[in-house]
Specification:
Layout lengths: L1 H12 L14 H4 L6 H10 L4 H13 L1 H6 L1 H17 L18 H11 L4 H10 L5 H13 L6 H5 L5 H5 L1 H13 L3 H13 L2 H11 L11 H19 L15 E6 L2 E5 L15 E2 L2 E2 L4 E7 L7 E2 L2 E2 H15 L5 E7 L3 E3 L5 E2 L2 H12 L9 H10 L6 E6 L11 H11 L6 E7 L3 H13 L4 E4 L1
Parallel strand pairs: 5-8, 5-11, 11-12, 12-13
Antiparallel strand pairs: 1-2, 3-4, 6-7, 8-9, 8-10
Helix pairs in contact: 1-6, 3-6, 4-7, 6-7, 6-8, 7-8, 7-9, 8-9, 9-12, 12-14, 13-14, 16-17, 19-20
Protein name: von Willebrand factor type A domain protein
Pfam families: VWA_3
InterPro entries: ARM-like, ARM-type_fold, ITIH, VWF_A, vWFA_dom_sf
Length: 462
């Protein structure tokens, strides 16, 4: 493994004088020495041991006392590499986001160690994070991408782009999102180039996210080079004119990557060496739902059918109003979109157990299903949000409509639900858009917080 070779190199670099703990004033070279003191060996035993609480306690101490981290960085690197190796051996050949919402499988301590090393000023520490990009567990790779983007490690751009070749890039929206977000956080011309190429080839929520980032490009993204930045703006204007004429856009930065990304089927992406035939074609839009633009290409509509939905909403019931709006939204979906419908009261019911292409036939079947929705029992909000996270690896956005506070399920506490769902969604990257019909201020705040914490939008309907 790469981390084994890194550890071997570190071992060969130098040695620590027996029994002398490294101090904060030691040089960077001293701190890179492989751990040989009894204190450092004990640190490695704790970090690689079975007690997760003990690991987290030590990591917390290292975070709070940066001098202690710097003095024992070699031990922290050794321990992290050992954990990565051990965890790699437990991962199956199939790349999967294991656990509910994608993060239950990877220990919190391993994630925090990677973040500590990513935030460290030493290249040896950064190398461990970069090597973790190629880890067989996709969640570990996503943690590494997130860390590199957050810490602005621009030198790792090519290592991030290489992850496009992994099967997970085709199979998991969360993995694609993590890669795009990492590139979006790196302010340099090469990251902008790759975002442009990706925007030309992919659709749905990610394309919207990329276009939003590209709209905010500034001088910082060109290393302060005003002439180069001005050239980018001029080519951006030229590209907009070409798009109006239905012509394929040209790259807006001087260098062209060796390959681009294109769709190879529903939810599938792959590398290619030439521009896609779809470039330059007009984008199909999916309309809007309660004033929220349907930017996602793969979306889930969640409808509350609990007893309170029989309450009046002007000249009809709340459920009738919700059904009418959902039918209107389904009718607007473009043929290249994919969608699903989930109902909840005390129990959760799905129209189909996977995303369905928005063909005219499928939309008609879905509309008939919606027309037949009947009033149910209580409100299992936590249950339906949890099922949304598990629903489909290609799902990009969820639209949750409800009229009341949670009254059934594992928990009915809005605060607990927010904490749990946002935590599960941390690396799943679903956008939860919420709609509250006739809700009280407490429920309105709950729905607004859920949307805000996941990057979605909230609408209140009185």
């Amino acid at each position: 493994m790469i981390w084994k070779w890194t550890a071997l190199v570190l071992c060969l670099l130098t040695f620590v004088e027996g029994g002398r703990p490294l101090g904060a004033a030691d040089s960077a070279a001293e701190n890179m020495k492989t751990a040989t003191t009894s204190a450092q060996k004990r640190m490695i035993r704790i970090l690689t041991g079975r007690s997760e609480p003990a690991k987290l306690k030590l990591i917390s101490q290292l975070n709070a006392q940066r001098s202690q981290l710097n003095a024992n960085l070699g031990a922290v690197i050794d321990a992290t590499e050992q954990l990565l190796d051990e965890y790699a051996g437990s991962v199956s050949d199939d790349e999967t986001l294991r656990g509910n919402g994608g993060e239950a499988g990877v220990p919190v301590s391993l994630r925090q160690l990677l973040q500590i090393l990513g935030n460290c000023p030493h290249e040896e520490a950064h190398a461990v994070v970069v090597d973790a990009l190629d880890h067989p567990d996709t969640y570990v790779s996503m943690i590494a991408m997130d860390t590199i983007g957050e810490m602005q490690h621009v030198v790792a751009i090519e290592d991030i782009v290489r992850q496009i070749r992994r099967p997970a890039f085709e199979e998991q929206y969360a993995f694609r999102f993590a890669l795009v977000r990492a590139l979006a956080r790196l302010h340099c011309p090469l990251s902008i180039e790759w975002l442009q190429r990706l925007a030309e080839q992919i659709d749905g929520q990610l394309r919207h996210e990329i276009e939003t980032r590209l709209a905010d490009v500034d001088l910082r993204d060109f290393d302060g080079d005003r002439e180069r930045y001005q050239g980018y703006l001029e080519q951006l204007e030229e590209g907009a004119k070409m798009a109006e004429l239905g012509m394929p856009p040209r790259s807006m930065t001087p260098a062209q990557p060796a390959s681009a990304v294109t769709r190879s089927g529903a939810g599938k992406l792959q590398l290619q060496d030439a521009p896609s035939e779809s470039q330059g074609k007009l984008r199909l839009t999916n309309g809007e739902y309660y004033g929220i633009e349907l930017n996602a290409g793969r979306m889930l509509f969640v409808i509350d059918r609990s007893g309170s939905m029989r309450e009046p909403a002007y000249h009809e019931t709340r459920l009738q109003s919700a059904k009418r709006e959902l039918i209107r939204a389904l009718d607007q979906l473009s043929p290249d979109a994919e969608f699903a419908i989930m109902l909840f009261d005390t129990e959760i019911q799905s129209w189909r157990n996977k995303l369905t292409p928005a063909t005219q036939e499928n939309k008609l079947h879905a509309i008939e299903f919606v027309k037949g929705i009947e009033i149910g029992d209580r409100t299992n909000t936590h249950g339906v949000l949890t099922e949304s996270l598990r629903f489909d690896d290609q799902l990009e956005a969820v639209f949750v409509l409800t009229d009341g506070r949670p009254t059934a399920g594992v928990t009915i506490s809005p605060q607990v639900i927010i904490h749990d769902i946002v935590g599960r969604n941390h690396m799943r990257h679903l956008k939860f858009n919420t709609i509250g019909i006739g809700v009280n201020p407490t429920t309105s705040e709950f729905l607004k917080t859920l949307a805000t914490e996941t990057g979605g939008e909230y609408r209140r309907v009185d």
